[in-house]
Design a protein that fits this description.
The protein is of the alpha+beta class. The strands form four sheets. Strands 1-2-3-14-6-16-5-4 form an eight-stranded mixed beta sheet, covered by helices on one side. A three-stranded antiparallel beta sheet has the order 13-7-15. Strands 9-8-12 form a three-stranded antiparallel beta sheet. A hairpin with a 6-residue loop joins strand 1 and strand 2. Helix 5 packs antiparallel against helix 6. Bound molecules: succinic acid.
């Protein structure tokens, strides 16, 4: 067990910190894990630099913070352990994931946290942007907060992944099966964080189709306003990757966006996600 003196260097008032003084190739002691968890809750996304971890070490680190989610239904799966997703782009300009989102909000219990490790980084571009949904909620006026407080929204697997899955061979049939496994799911538009008690906005462009209690016209106008609001630059931090960086974000109170600005260059990331709870 290794005990570290952990340094937390904040990157912006609302979101993001770099964690120094930790070697993730080692098994960390409980005190270090507690400090990292606190840094995550305080900063929403934390970055570790120069961590040449193996897939096993990645999984072992994730496991210290909760149960690891089952294999992702669309991303590639690592030979070593299918729960380690391979997020890779090479030689094509893709459109998957090209929207602000939080992970798997089409599930009844969306991901608690995601841990992304950079393996191959393009010469330029390929940054990931993160936005604080606490800051987005806090910036709303009191009447808008009151209006949103009792609303729920539907999140759809098909909206996020339909195009990607359907263009694969046998994609329509596969999509039919996946839609049965992941039927549309309702969540509150404003959720309360189970650990901090803070409120955050919980809708995203990738998976949210409509607000259940409103007419179609009202829902699309309100979602358009919220989708613009949640991407306000002041709520964000942007990470420029180097090889062997690791980002750990709190998926319950953030959105992220993977910039697809690196053309045909190769980008390879490994991701492990943690089981979350039902948003309330
Ligand atoms: C993700 O959406 O979890 C991946 C983000 C990235 O590849 O930068």
């Amino acid at each position: 067990m290794v005990s570290n003196h952990i340094e937390v260097c904040s990157l912006s008032p609302h979101i993001g910190a770099v964690i120094r003084g930790v070697d993730l190739t080692q098994t960390l002691d409980e005190q270090s894990i507690c400090e990292i968890r606190k840094a995550l809750l305080d900063n929403l996304v934390i970055f570790f630099e120069d961590q040449a971890i193996s897939p096993d070490q990645h999984l072992a680190f994730a496991q210290r913070f909760g149960d690891i989610e089952e294999p992702h239904p669309v991303f590639g799966q690592h030979d070593r352990d299918a729960r380690l997703s391979i997020i890779e782009s090479r030689g094509r300009v893709g459109d998957d994931d090209h929207e602000w989102h939080s992970d798997v909000t089409y599930q009844s219990k969306p991901t608690m946290g995601s841990i992304l490790h950079s393996r191959i980084i393009p010469p330029s571009g390929g940054d990931t942007l993160f936005s604080s949904m606490y800051a987005a909620y806090d910036a709303l006026t009191a009447p808008m907060k009151a209006f949103l407080s009792d609303l729920t929204a539907t999140h759809s697997f098909e909206l996020g992944w339909g195009k990607t899955v359907r263009r694969q061979e046998g994609g329509d049939e596969r999509m039919h099966k996946l839609n049965a496994v992941f039927p549309p799911m309702s969540h509150p538009v404003v959720r309360t964080h189970p650990e901090t008690g803070r409120k955050s906005l919980f809708v995203n462009q990738y998976y949210t189709t409509h607000i259940n209690e409103l007419s179609e016209r009202e829902s699309s106008a309100v979602l358009k306003m919220l989708f613009e609001h949640i991407t306000t630059p002041e709520f964000q931090v942007r990470h420029r990757w180097k090889q062997n960086d690791l980002a750990f974000w709190d998926n319950r109170a953030t959105l992220h966006y993977a910039a697809r600005d690196y053309g045909l260059e190769h980008r390879l990331m490994h991701r492990v996600t943690l089981v979350g709870d039902k948003p309330v």
